[in-house]
């Protein structure tokens, strides 16, 4: 399991009470876990805090996103942040 997926699972379990057994790559944050759009933003902001990256507004505005898509978004943001931190100033 990827580190990012583990972080996302931990946030969903610890902060939102989702049963870890129910969290799958294909699970949709909104339709499968019962979050509305405001809850979805809250979830993403909690994952932002756990990963120390900032998600662009266009991602926050999405109303359908699977766990796999969230992992992909956060993996990309983490890679970009790591790359930028290593770049000469």
Characterization of this structure:
With 89 residues, the protein is an all-alpha fold. It has 4 helices and no strands. It has helices at residues 3-16, 37-51, 57-60, 67-86. It is globular.
Strand % is under 5%
Poorly predicted regions are: none
Q: Give the strand tally.
A: 0
Helical residue percent band: 55-70%
Describe the structure in brief.
The protein is mainly alpha-helical and 89 residues long. It is 60% helix and 0% strand.
Record keyword descriptors for this entry.
89 residues; mainly alpha; 60% helix; globular
Topology overview:
Layout: H1 3-16, H2 37-51, H3 57-60, H4 67-86
Helix pairs in contact: 1-2
